[in-house]
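Dear support,

We are seeing what looks like truncated structure output for some complexes. This example has two components. We would appreciate it if you could run it in full and send us the complete token output so we can diff it against ours.
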Amino acid sequence: MDERTDSFVSGVQRLEANLSSVIRGKSEAVRLLLISLLSGGHALLEDVPGTGKTTLAKSLARSISGTFRRVQFTPDLLPADITGSSFYKPQDGSFEFREGPVFTNVLLADEINRTSPRTQSALLEVMSESQVTVDGKRRDLPRPFFVVATENPAEYQGTYPLPEAQLDRFAVRISIGYPDAASELEVLFSQRDHHPFDDLQAVVGCEQVIAMQDRVKRVRVDPAVADYIVRLVGCTRGDTRLRLGVSPRGSLTLYRTAQASALLDGREFVTPDDVRAMAVSVLAHRVVLDTKAKYGGQRTEQIIEEAIGKTAVPR
Amino acid sequence: MNPRQETSSERSLINSGGALPWTLIGSALAAMAALYFSSNRFAGLGVLAVLLVFSRFTSWRLPRSIVITYGVRGLILVVLVTAMNRTDPQDLTPWYLKQADTNLAGFALAADIVLRAWGKRDAAGAREGLGVVVLMTGLLFAAATNTYERVHIQVIAPIYAALLLLSLRSFALMQQPTGRMREVRGGLVLLRVVVISLTLLFAGGAVYGVTQYESQVENWAMQFVQRHHNSTQHEIGFATATQLSTVFNPEESIDRVFVIDGQIKDPHLRIASFYFYQSQQWFPLIADRAYAPTSQSGSFAKGGKNVLTFHRLADTTDLLATPVTAAAVGSEDPLEEDGSATIRDTRSGSFAPYQVIDSGLPNPAKLNFEKLSAKSRGQLLAIPSEMDPQVSEIAKRAAGDGKPARQLMRIVKYLQEHHAYSLSYDPHGAEPLNDFILHGRAAHCQYFASAMVVMARAVGIPARYVGGFYAHEPYGNGQTVVRQRDAHAWAECWLDGVGWVTVDATPAGGRPDVLAPRVPSWRRWWEKLNDVPGEIREWIWANARLLKKLAALAAIVALCVWVVRRARDWRRKGGKSAPRYPLPAEEIIEMAQRYEAWLKDRQIACPPERTWRANLAARDSKSEGHWPWGEEAILCDTFMRAYDRARFGSDGEAILRARDILEQIERRA
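Here is the complete output from our reference environment:
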């Protein structure tokens, strides 16, 4: 492990400590969020209201010293409201572009499934290419660019389920879940006089995040492990219970997140265990159940687990 | 989530890279063995072989630096050239036929292979260098085939070829650099094809060329050498003419020429005799000699009491040293003899040992002077025309009257009384032999021998000048060693009714046994070490037929095992084609198999769909089998960590660590 990895580890440890001071007893969710940040992807936090989705997203944003914007997605939000639009300047009769909230380092898209598919789709280009095209002109977003979206599970009232293409652009889907009794008790006491979120300080800079992301890309992936990823993903494409298997973007993300996961464990190489650990979080939200399976009580997580159980591991 | 901090030793070893694969080391060792047995002088190759093997057992690697890359290689080359290539500038044998030069090239290649085995490589284990090593072992083997004794080559060649073919597998499975798939480059593919064809050519050429076309190649080579020799009129040593030199044997080399088993009765071992003196030289040329197949080896089978076995350790231009009293000479090679009892081996360059039956008595039946032609008799009695008439007078005065034997003794006494011994001699511008005899000068054995011949002839006794060795140095175990510094000259005279007798007129203080300083004791050990390949080679000679069959069998078995294993792997993968990724190194596969066998022994199922770690994590006290708990589980975890690093992190050092831990685990079974 060289010096760069040391700085990587210290950066990760600071971020982790920061987030854990706010979100109690959810180290797995914190780890997944960091992996999605370091692998250069975006994270989707999905759970029932009140489990700390927004707090986790806000805490991460505050831990990075870059700019942070938050968009509360509402049913009447329009694409131009998030990307920005050109305004008429009466003084000289020209149009001036005013940047929307996506021009930031960390974007919190709160309750993303409360807005219409039209507005949700405005994020497609933003998330996959880190750029915005308005009035035929291309504008690059700052680096790093990290979207944390939160949503309620799709069956809840007053929501529009995210389209598959949109879901595919999130590296991981994180479900926080209820805390255990001890952690919940801790939450109650920690907020006695003020929210611990108010004490958060930025612990890493934007350059450091970019360096960490580059570091992740250099983690060694043995061809056998890459082949394992391909076989695992291929397994979902042949599954009759699925209407849609995992896309190549999915395998690429699995590859990248496995690299980040390995580096977080202090390793310079990816093992099949890394791939297995990331598979459900990375793949489950990318597949679509067919109607029969859906109403037969199948869940996508379960199907991915089965695919893991069927695919031979390289030794 | 706690990033595991690596220890500093682990950190420093990440980039250590792996050593050469075993198969490649094996083929390099086979090529080095071929060279080692081709020559007696290269005990140093054993050191290189040990270094090469040792490179597998340590993770320390030479740092990459310009000093190592060029400096050390240059140094090795300079040392080799100065140590091995003491060539005679007049020797015009083409370099590729001269064994010393091909040996030098082979030694340099072997040293470079060792350097490469110890060199540091990329963390990704880029194995482009393997191709170069494969090529170098091929060249090394080709260098070793430049020898006249090919039996050991025929034994080693199939082993070498099989190992080389097996090593091509690890060469083909080049590790890919981190994560990224390598683009297929035309140049690289071409290079592989060239390297594989070249090595197969070397291996195949070594086997078939040596076995099928041995005599043709040899004839062609000999023709080539002879053409060179004829064009320059260059003649060598004892074989042709002997020049009376001003300084005798100036080099005083203690290199060994012969080691002789058996009891030597007379230390004078003759090599060649000469009868005609002119311009300070004893003739004739070898071309004037009519060699005929010797009948002596035929009578050899009848046996005799005193058998001497001569082990040849230096090139004596095919001439065999024998006592003048030899009754019979026998060798595996056909022998030839000329009229003056000079015996030579018809297989040029052969180092095969030969036997001599020595009665210790003159043997008139063997060489009947009465049967010699009038021409021979005239030649053996002719006094050189350059001789001063006073020489004959002195001879007659010194010899007096009486039996020829008594006359000879008186001449010897005269010479020893009137002349002192000196290694160097200045003829003062006159004809040296006249000057020596007439002015009572001090000189060395060549002059005493020449004077003895001339003076014996002057009193009517046929005599000839003889060059050879004075065998005086015991070598332990009843052996006698003859070194180059033991070269000597004396006269042989014919006594009617007795035969040829040795007459050495040189004063006792001038004989090699008195002149020679003691050989240092370390030299003995060094020589014994150098004899090992020769002894092994003789053993191979003795068992060649069986060994050749065994080597071919071993090669076939190795190839069959490899084919069967490949077929089994192929079947296990459900008849699918080869995996889409390169297989890991053999040691890693072997380790995985051993670990799974250990799990199986404890009735622990480990389905291929589960990683070992997941399997271990899923255990509980109710599940079947003797699961590792506590300390054992920690050992297993440590093993898996090291294994992962070796397998997926491409870390050569981790292989050794994982193997250590695996052995600990297995001991607990």
